[in-house]
Amino acid sequence: MAETSAPSPVAEPEESTVRESPVLRFMARYSILLILIGLVALVAVLSGGVSLRIGNLLNVLRQISVIGIIALGVTMCIITAGIDLSSGAVVALVSVVVASLLQEPDAMDRLYPGGQPWPVPVVIVIGLLVGVFIGFLNGAMITQLRIPPFIATLGMMTFARGWGFIYSGGRPRGSLVQSFQDLGQGSVLGIPNPALILLACVAITYVILNHTLWGRYTYALGSNMQAAVVSGIKTNRYLLLVYTFAGFLAAVAAIVLTARIGSGQPGLGLSYELDAIAASVIGGTSLAGGLGSAGGTLIGALIIGVMKNGLDILNVSADFQQVARAIIIVVAVTIDVRKNLRTT
Amino acid sequence: MSEFILQMENVQKSFPGVHALKGVHLDVRPGTVHGLMGENGAGKSTLMKIAIGLYRPDAGTIRLRGREVSFRSVHDALAQGISMIHQEMSPLPYMTVAQNIFLGREIRNRLGLIDHRAIDEASARILAELNIAISPRRIMGQLSVAQMQLVEIAEAVSRKADLIIMDEPTSALTEKEVAHLFTIIAGLKKRGVAVVYITHKTDEVFRITDEVSVFRDGELVGREDTANLTRDKLIRMMVGRTVDQFFHKESAHIGPPVLEVEGLTRRGHCRDVSFSVREGEILGVAGLIGAGRTEVMEALFGVAPHQAGVVKIRGKPVRIRSPADAIRHGMAFLTEDRKRTGLYLNLSVRDNIAMPSLRKHLRGLFLKHKALRKLCSDAVTSLRIKTPTLEQLVMNLSGGNQQKVLVSRWLATSPFLLILDEPTRGIDVGAKAEIYRLMSALAREGKAIILISSEMPEILAMSDRIMVMHEKRKVGELARGEASQEKILHMATGEPLGTFQPAPQL
């Protein structure tokens, strides 16, 4: 296919290059964005405009923030032609660790009589370190023990989930200090904190992917590992970094979620990794590696969020929502696959 | 019965933006080998994909044995006795040879279950008929490329195909394997099978074809009986220029040695190899496939570890433990398998060119995109890489342009030494000529070049000095003046010089 559509090589450059109409190229490039816009319009019409109220829009942003943050890390793993299945379990583990250190004295007393909540910044750092450590272990298993990412992170998923239950004794930890809860429940200039944190994570991931060595090497690794080695890329180092970063982002998501609901729970984040993968793939990330972006993943998360929100407004039952969601995922990815076919 | 088995008349085909075939004719006689030559993108493969029903023509008629046909799928064409051996084969690696041969046509027993024994026996019969010594029970993935190709031919024969299309079947074969393939093709001819043989290699045209059709830019330039052709005429037809201009070798000033390798040993791959390259010099590395040529260079470049040996750059010993070390010291390695170890197929031309140079274009943690874009657009201009934009995915370029992307990737790192491993494999004549021209220009600039090549004319024409390898060792060196095809082959096959016999039949 590639050979026949390629221009013949001896003639001067610029001649006989493939020309598409600008409209078509725009549509192909932004097909996912167009799907999102179409979905928003559809929901607006069906809900009689209710869905477009500012309050509701901010609500959608808040709802997708946790999955969105996780999905950014998962996207980087998928770009390297890998995967991270452990993120939902990391959310649970970090959640109970963080919560256990932040309970009000009277709540803490029941388990650790006389205990005091730790300073919030210290606890946040500890929570992030737990995520970083687990991500690092994932990366180490993949690069040093040569375990395929699917298996390594599948193992880590049950490992982290198990530790979450062991650590918490299977009980939720409530009555968290208010200053911590404000982190997830407050807002700045009317925009909910979780949404702001999500947008910050999108910006950071965008800069990493497009403006650092690490980012470009991430694409190189996923596109052709052997070529990356010959190009002088220390592939193990950057793979390790990618999985560590994914663990970090899962921890960020855990902290946001724990603060928002005001308690740490070992059952939290169940199957979040799958939602994150869905957001990533809807956003144009290729499971074959080498393709994906931070902006695309944000849009992918928004598509899932807008749809869920629309179904909520329309009072569709949770059971039907699952079915509807499956359909949207398949439709969105199908349209996106078409886009890839056209450009390759 | 018509005189021709296949007649294609006035075939037209367009793809978005490309007029791939502009009214092409092709007549193929039974029991002959019909060569198709032309650059990549000239339309040969497109025409053949139409012949087997993979593409549908926009206009034109196709006659098979005199009857007009219109294939709706490859399945149709197979049923009518046309088979194609594709350049990139897709066997099922975990299945046996027999299972691959009968894929989709499994013989069943009375219960409707697959009769493995019958399949094995039928396969063994076909393989024996064709003189192919491969057991039908072997696992496909364990075969060499050459053996897999032979299995595909057996499959075509088992389908009773009387027209077999081969798309550059020898691009990954050793001389011996090529010779074997050619005897099998000769056998097919005797059975009355017509073979359409797509190739880039002029010598193969003369060794095997009965007539040749040459394509350029989607048009048929000419059709000739091979007996009436000369090499010069053939190349002129393909590229519209003469042979002297093809291997463009300029004399360059040869300076002091810039790289010295002493006793390089990589367990299982090369033993005690020593050589040096000088400034402005092209050192050819000849040898049969498997002689260890690529393996030496992989050890030198840090792709694979070596157990012993000293590498000196401008007289100073250096340690190279990884490609990153090699690149830092100013070395570049154009690997032989473009797709496997070279290209980032689903990334842009820009990413493909810039990847090893990124490190040199950092401001703090961040990439200097402006400088990088200039680096890449300069490379595209100076090597005349045909691409609509820098953002084009490299998989959409032709083979020759992909190779130029890889060359420019390494030139962008400003190396003092370039290792070029089969730099012209699988690219068209025009792009080859450009690569030769570029090699001469680089040598004149004072760069040292190591050229690994299996194409004898190429290595003889371009090298200032040739080192020959045999069974993982270096067996000797020949200066430009004293090198000849015979001497190289003797050394490469392990026969001592002096026991000269007539050149082995190729």
Q: How much helix is in the residues of chain A? A: over 70%
User: Low-confidence runs of chain B (pLDDT<50, min 5 residues)?
Assistant: 498-506
Question: Helical proportion of chain B?
Answer: 25-40%
Main sheet: strand order of chain B: 6-7-8-3-9-10
Seen as an oligomer or otherwise, the chain set is: heterodimer
Based on secondary structure, the structural category of chain A is mainly alpha
Characterize the biggest β-sheet of chain B: 6 strands, mixed
Question: How would you characterize the overall build of this protein?
Answer:
The complex is a heterodimer of chains A (344) and B (506). With 344 residues, chain A is an all-alpha fold. Chain A is built from 16 helices and two strands. The N and C termini of chain A lie close together (9 Å). Chain B is α/β, with parallel strands linked by helices and 506 residues long. Chain B is built from 17 helices and 22 strands. Chain B has helices at residues 44-51, 74-79, 97-101, 116-129, 145-158, 175-190, 202-208, 231-239, 293-301, 323-328, 338-342, 349-354, 369-382, 399-411, 429-444, 456-462, 485-492; strands spanning 6-15, 18-28, 33-38, 59-64, 67-69, 82-85, 163-167, 194-198, 211-216, 219-225, 257-266, 270-278, 282-287, 308-313, 316-318, 331-334, 362-363, 366-367, 417-421, 448-452, 465-470, 473-479. A six-stranded mixed β-sheet of chain B has the order 6-7-8-3-9-10, sandwiched between helices. In chain B, strands 16-19-20-13-21-22 form a six-stranded mixed β-sheet, with helices on both faces.
Give the SSE map.
The complex is a heterodimer of chains A (344) and B (506).
Chain A: H1 2-5, H2 22-29, H3 31-46, H4 54-79, H5 87-100, H6 105-109, H7 120-143, H8 149-168, H9 178-185, E1 187-188, E2 191-192, H10 193-211, H11 213-223, H12 225-230, H13 235-261, H14 272-282, H15 294-313, H16 318-343
Antiparallel strand pairs in A: 1-2
Helix pairs in contact in A: 3-15, 4-10, 4-13, 4-14, 4-15, 5-7, 5-8, 5-13, 7-8, 7-13, 9-13, 10-11, 10-13, 11-13, 14-15, 15-16
Chain B: E1 6-15, E2 18-28, E3 33-38, H1 44-51, E4 59-64, E5 67-69, H2 74-79, E6 82-85, H3 97-101, H4 116-129, H5 145-158, E7 163-167, H6 175-190, E8 194-198, H7 202-208, E9 211-216, E10 219-225, H8 231-239, E11 257-266, E12 270-278, E13 282-287, H9 293-301, E14 308-313, E15 316-318, H10 323-328, E16 331-334, H11 338-342, H12 349-354, E17 362-363, E18 366-367, H13 369-382, H14 399-411, E19 417-421, H15 429-444, E20 448-452, H16 456-462, E21 465-470, E22 473-479, H17 485-492
Parallel strand pairs in B: 3-8, 3-9, 6-7, 7-8, 13-20, 13-21, 16-19, 19-20
Antiparallel strand pairs in B: 1-2, 1-4, 4-5, 9-10, 11-12, 11-14, 14-15, 17-18, 21-22
